[in-house]
Amino acid sequence: MKNSFVGPVVLIGVGVLFLANNLRPDLSPWRLLADYWPYLLIIWGVIRLVEIAWLASRNQPLPKRGVSGGEWGLIIFVSLFASGMWLAYDAREKIRSGRVNLRGLQIFGESFEYPVSASVTAGKTPRIIVENRRGNVRLVGGDSDKVTVSGHNTVMGLDRTEADRINERMKLEVTVQGDQVVIRTNQERVNTDNRVDSDLEVQIPKGASVECRGTRGDFDVSHITGNYEVTSENAGVRGQDIGGNVRVDIRRSDIVRLLKVKGNVDVKASRGEDIELDEVTGQAIVAGQFTGSVDFRRVEKLLRFESEATNLSVEKLKGRARLSDGDLEVEDILGPMKLRSRSKDVRVSGFATPVEIDLNRGDIELSPGSSTLSTIIAKTSSGAVTMHLPENAKYDIEAKTRRGEVENLFGNALDRVEEDRGGVIRGKNGGPRIVLETERGTMTVTRGGTMSSRMDLKYPPAAPSAPVAPAAPKPPTVVER
Amino acid sequence: MPTSIGLVAAIRGPVILITLGTLIAIDHAGGLRFSRTWPVLIIMFGVLKLAEYVKGGQQ
Q1: pLDDT band at A23 (very low <50, low <70, confident <90, very high)
Q2: Count of other CB atoms within 10 angstroms of residue A209
Q3: In chain A, whose CA is at the least distance from the CA of B14?
Q4: Spatial distance between the Cα atoms of A220 and A248, rounded to a whole number of angstroms
Q5: Among residues A194, A226, A258, which one ends one of the domains?
Q6: Does A372 map to a domain?
Q7: What percentage of chain A exceeds 70 in pLDDT?
Q8: Smallest Cβ distance to B21: which of A42, A49, A55?
Q9: Are strands A294-306 and A137-142 parallel, antiparallel or unpaired?
């Protein structure tokens, strides 16, 4: 309908709504709409009535219909949308007030805590198996040949009687079978939706090997000479001073942190966040997607990292290899390195061993920092390549860009030729082959030693951090909801 | 000069809209559920139609 009040009034209303939201952020316009939309319909009707009364009083022709077909459509749309919002808010309210239980996620009731403890005598080198579905477990090696478990179960229940009954069913079991000690929290026996957690602190003989199985919760093992294995759906995994091998097989994880491992490290994580390895005497193989920071330091044998987009292998990493979203930095390697990646800016410094880099996209910066070189092959489809060639090195270099500038800052020992849209820098004095190639981007060869500012940063090996204590047991609390 | 019939026909939409809004507001306020009160809308519609006929008869 033309010349209607509704259009301007709606505009004013929307303006007021958002102004109110800006002045009082606690008032959400959606919330207001969800709560008051029926009044919106009433106001809408009243406006129309006033309009018609006004027209009638001035003896002007009346519209055939007070509310047009299109308007009814709009009204139905607004009603459906707003009542949907209302239902959503209502459901959230119910969840908050604790009238709903969603898929075992306990949202009502109170949490009750029960202390648990057990102690058994094991041998000097027992194999310890921990089965804890939910909760954090920390195991610390010590001189005693006893396995001592302490901690608490947290049970969510409507009242103490219910919680007592549930806690009764999930008795902590510590059994010895030969040299095998099984620590079981028996959460599986609780078949209700009630959420139960067991947080344990375990003292174990330092010769022990540990195997942890869980669904959700962190594992932290330190000071053992045996192996350390974790299998879980979702776990933070920490380990320090592990004499044997470490094997981690998890689906999700917020952190994997392994320091001072004498054996090999093998990590598989479908979706991880951060991973940190330091002082691994054996080899380290890490496979999975890590979205946070990936930090490897001092891996004495082979380090292999495999993700969807990046494939890195380095032998004898004396320094550090760090990956983040778009960068990969490798410093100080004593063995050959191979890298394939879809998209990363790569910087490699401190190497005298063969290096092979193949990128789909990204810049490459190489600073051997040593006058003895080995074969270097570095290719990128799109990105700049910079080579810091040491002054008195022996080389047989060919640095080529198909499309881009070529810069020879090394000196007259190298020839620079422009070809087509790109160019090439060549030169040899009886050294190993160095092949640098970019499809599109600037090719630069400079005198070594002049490292970029970032390469100059020397990262001292981080001091091993103190083992993280598990969270202090919470006093039994009554959670009001 | 608008006729009375025209006036009644014109206010039908707004009146129905106001009724609808009121019923839903009552529902939200915790009163009678809309699922029980919706026939009021039909009654209102009937009443307005009737008014139209009555007005038409007068002229």
Answers
A1: confident
A2: 23
A3: A45
A4: 12
A5: A226
A6: yes
A7: 87
A8: A42
A9: unpaired
ipTM for the whole predicted complex goes beyond 0.90: no
Instruction: Judge if A452 and A334 occupy the same domain.
Output: yes
Q: What is the mean pLDDT of residues A264-292?
A: 93
Convert the pLDDT of each residue in A279-298 to its tens digit: 999 999 999 989 889 999 99
**Which B-chain residues 28-57 have CB contacts (< 8 A) with chain A?**
28
**DSSP characters over A30-69:** HHHHHHHHHHHHHHHHHHHHHHHHHHHHTTPPPPS-SS-H
* Residues of chain A contacting B28 with CB distance shorter than 8 Å: 35, 38, 86
- Is A221 within 8 Å of A228 (Cβ atoms)? yes
Alpha carbon dihedral A209, A213, A217, A223, in 10-degree steps, equals: 0
Share of chain A above pLDDT 90, in %: 49
The average pLDDT across A189-196 equals 73
Number of domains comprising chain A: 4
Is B22's CB within 8 Å of A56's CB? no
Residue A89 domain boundaries: 6-97
From chain B, the residues in CB contact with A47 under 8 A are 14
Whether residue B17 lies within 8 A of chain A, CB to CB, comes out as yes
Query: Under a CB-based contact definition with an 8 Å cutoff, are residues A299 and A280 in contact?
Result: yes
For the cut 90, the answer to whether the pLDDT of residue A477 exceeds it is no
Q: Which residue of B has its CA nearest to A63?
A: B10
Q: Residue A166 pairs with which residues in a beta bridge?
A: none
Q: Say how many domains are in chain B.
A: 1
H or E stretch covering A305? strand A294-306
Q: Give B23's contacts in chain A (Cβ within 8 Å).
A: 38
Check residue A100 and give its pLDDT: 47
Residues A238, A223: Cα–Cα separation, whole Å: 12
The answer to whether the pTM exceeds 0.80 is no
The strand ranges marked E within A10-145 are 110-121, 127-131, 137-142
Distance from C-alpha of B30 to C-alpha of A74, rounded to nearest angstrom: 26
